[in-house]
Design goal:
This protein is an all-alpha fold and 633 residues long. The chain has five domains: 174 residues, Lysozyme; 148 residues; 102 residues, no CATH class; 38 residues, no CATH class; 76 residues, Methyltransferase, Methionine Synthase (B12-binding Domains), Chain A, domain 1 (Orthogonal Bundle), CATH 1.10.1240. Strands 1-2 form a two-stranded antiparallel ribbon. A two-stranded antiparallel sheet has the order 3-4. The two termini are 16 Å apart.
């Protein structure tokens, strides 16, 4: 979520508030939530806290409640988990089995099964685990997958093969839990994984701050102190290790340079390129963490070191490389820089059918059109068929109680296995009931038949258009930002206090309101659509002016603040492609945000105007500039 918002010479208190379409919340929510609904919400909170007594007490008072499956789930779930993880007794097993039988083939049954699999895995009840695991539909829990590999290992499957499978799984230490830590130690004991590989996984955890986990995974790391030093002060770690590297083995030198390179690159320090070059000479790319592998590419991009970019991508974990189209695009760019045009074309072609930031850039490299695809229409009968689906009806009711997590679960479960036309019908239905985030969610999934007016909807246009026109703000960019910020959910709020369609921070809102002459402004007015869009749009325009008209810099500033955007620009050593600047933004959230906002803006321009500027031209070429103090918050 954004940390900021917008301003100009518009006096918002003089702008008449138009008749707005009925909002997501007002459409779904009753005038007052019933007492049983409030009790249901309390039950949900008790289940989140694994409060067995409270959950039992509340569920007993919700007999015949419409969401009987959720009542049962919230009652049973605390009996499976406690403060230390999963409970070891068998007291809830019969209830789980009865639940799975009664509510089979539902989203909640799939969730319950995953919860129970964590318990079965911890118990080493592999016979029951394997039966239940085979019934999983979504199978998207990393810990459950780790238990699955442990089950196979216990039954004598080849540990070397299982270790290969684990490399595709053990990518993000925040997902590991007890199961994945146990898998690593078991694979080492079985001879399928080397101690060096285990230490590499542990080192990845240490890089992310999971020190206890790091020790459990890999034991004492010979370069553990270097990892800590690089995290604290990478420039000093670089200088110190330059003097002391010869004391370490070739393997440890290589991984140390990789770690130092990662943290230098995150500081946008040009020495990152040198550190990674030293690592490249030594080898051991496979022992670098995902973070180090990815930042090796980014360090090469910042230095325009295309040989390092190519080598870094060649040495990537294949799963990491294939998951993100960035690496396919930049590999093609490296080949092109080396004069290998035919091979570069082959690389760009691999992602040219994707409707994302790098798919767009790849199509431009191939000289293909970036216009939106032809619109597929759906019939009233197809929309009516969607409206009668149980999951959508339940989802609306859950949204009305502001239970977005559960509402999304119901809607996404219904979207499984849908044809493109069914997805478009679901998107159109969601549009009609003003669930705009669900419009985007459904339309974004189509593969062959599309409707980009649903994928990139324009609600509140009668409010936003005159505001943008009055301050000369590009409307497609404003929509691209809102789509990323809030998905058009009026009462969206972030953990840091940003709110509304444009996710405005209260202090920023006050600043902007004062600047544009919005009298009698108070923060409770941020929930008003007109006010929110006025302040957000104005602030976005202010940022664009402050950052010399660069959309990349202004988009980054909207998310992370203008001082950070200016500081990142100051580190440039020469004119730099906007795409490279975006890819090398140190903050992950902001990096993803900027690419999505600008990709969105490109498609919005095409949807609204029928034509669109080259994405590369929008990104521009950013020149270095010393950071100056800005009064903008």
């Amino acid at each position: 979520m954004s940390l900021v918002i917008g301003a100009s010479n518009v006096y918002a208190d003089k702008i008449k508030k138009p008749n707005l379409p009925q909002s997501y919340e007002s459409k779904a929510a009753p005038a007052e939530i019933a007492d049983t609904d409030r009790m249901f919400i309390d039950l949900r909170e008790a289940a989140k806290k694994n409060d067995v007594f409270r959950a039992q007490q509340l569920s007993s008072n919700l007999v015949n409640y419409p969401f009987d499956d959720y009542v049962a789930y919230f009652r049973i779930k605390p009996q499976l988990f406690d403060g230390s993880g999963t409970r070891s007794d068998y007291s809830a097993d019969a209830q789980v089995i009865a639940f799975l039988n009664q509510y089979q083939d539902t989203a909640l049954a799939d969730r319950m099964r995953n919860d129970w699999l964590l318990v079965l895995g911890k118990r080493k009840d592999w016979a029951r685990f394997d039966i239940e695991y085979s019934k999983c539909v979504l199978d998207d829990y990393t810990q459950v997958k780790c238990y699955s590999l442990l089950s196979k290992l216990s039954q004598g499957e080849n540990p070397t093969k299982l270790a290969i499978d684990s490399r595709a799984l053990l990518l993000d230490p925040s997902d590991f839990g007890q199961a994945c830590q146990e898998l690593v130690s078991s694979l080492v004991a079985a001879g399928g994984m080397t101690p060096s590989e285990a230490k590499a996984i542990g080192r990845a955890a240490s890089e992310r701050g999971f020190e206890t986990m790091a020790r459990h995974l890999g034991g004492e790391d010979p370069i553990g102190d270097i990892v800590k030093a690089a995290k604290a002060d990478p420039a000093k770690a670089y200088r110190d290790f330059s003097q002391n590297a010869s004391r370490y083995s070739k393997e440890n030198q290589a991984v140390a340079w990789g770690v130092i390179g990662q943290f230098l690159a995150k500081k946008l320090d040009p020495n990152a390129d040198d550190a990674y070059r030293l690592q490249q000479e030594l080898g051991y790319n496979e022992l670098l963490s995902v973070e180090s592998q990815e930042w090796k590419v980014r360090a090469g991009l910042r230095a325009k070191d295309w040989a390092l970019v190519k080598n870094a991508i060649d040495g990537m974990n294949p799963v990491v490389r294939s998951k993100d189209p960035a690496w396919t695009y930049w590999y093609g760019s490296a080949l092109k820089a080396e004069g290998q045009d035919a091979k570069a074309t082959e690389s760009f072609a691999l992602i040219a059918d994707q409707y994302n930031f790098y798919g767009q850039l790849a199509r431009e490299e191939l000289g293909k059109s970036n216009q939106v695809p032809a619109k597929t229409k759906v019939t009233e009968q197809e929309i009516d068929a969607i409206a009668s689906r149980k999951g959508f009806i339940r989802g609306e009711r859950l949204y009305a109680m502001n239970l977005r997590f559960e509402g999304n679960r119901e809607w996404n479960w219904e979207l499984r296995n849908m044809t493109d036309k069914q997805l478009l019908a679901a998107a159109e239905y969601a549009k009609r009931i003003h669930l705009y985030d669900r419009v985007v969610n459904a339309a974004d999934r189509t593969k062959q038949e599309h409707d980009f007016s649903l994928r990139y909807p324009t609600p509140f246009k009668e409010v936003l258009s005159p505001i943008a026109r009055q301050i000369d703000l590009n409307l497609s960019w404003a929509y691209g930002l809102i789509r990323q910020e809030s998905r058009f959910i009026i009462n969206a709020s972030s953990s840091v206090g940003a709110s509304g369609l444009m996710q405005i921070m209260p202090n920023t809102a006050k600043y902007v309101a004062k600047k544009i002459g919005m009298t009698n402004y108070t923060n409770d007015k941020l929930s008003d659509t007109n006010t929110n869009l006025t302040l957000g749009s104005n602030y976005l325009k202010m940022l664009l002016i402050d950052l010399d008209g660069f959309w990349v810099l202004a988009s980054a500033a909207y998310n992370a603040g203008p001082s950070r955007s200016k500081a990142w620009r100051e580190t440039l050593t020469g004119p730099t492609e906007g795409a490279i600047f975006a890819e090398t933004i140190p903050c992950t959230e902001t990096r993803v945000y900027v690419k999505n906002v600008l990709s969105n803006a490109h498609y919005y321009s095409s949807v609204m105007n029928g034509t669109s500027q080259s994405l590369k031209q929008r990104l521009g070429v950013i020149s270095p500039k010393a950071a100056t103090q800005s009064e903008l918050p």
